[in-house]
Amino acid sequence: MMLDLFSVTVMTAIVAFVATAIFVIETLRRRDAGAGRLWAVAYLCGTVTTFAYISWAAGIGEEVAIAIGNAAFAMTPAFMWLGNRRFNDRPIVWQSVVVGVLAVTTFLAAVIRVPIEGEWGGWAVMAAHIVFFFLAGGWEAMRRPMGRMGNARLLTGVLFAAAVYGTARVY
User: Fold this and answer.
1) I need a labelling partner for 26 at 20 to 30 A (CA). Which of 19, 43, 53, 138 fits?
2) Which pLDDT band, with edges at 50, 70 and 90, does 70 fall under?
């Protein structure tokens, strides 16, 4: 499958927009300290992703900008997953370690592969990680008590759609 910047950017923007809208609505409604904080980090990771890719597109930072963007993009659904788990009152200790390790490997994959393969170097590693996090986040959003909420069903659909899209983009 041919990778193109436009469709990847559009999919990233859709996921970030829906995640942001749900975060803002739920934060205003609940003022939740646990899950809300993790969802806020997901929102910030999405914002960092955007700025990193804009920097790269402007010719600033080269592989480091791509690596930061890729790692932040992977951490966006990762922190959604952690927030969903916290909302459902499930532990997040080992899951947080997984997020950290996969974020570092996503970053390193881009730093190492971009100079060799070009701007899409490290894509397969990032795609595998985001697919995992999208699936995990979607699955957790379906579980109770979160799964009883209408917004959670919308979030589940978006996360699963993003996982399907990411999987299709790898091949």
Assistant:
1) 53
2) very high
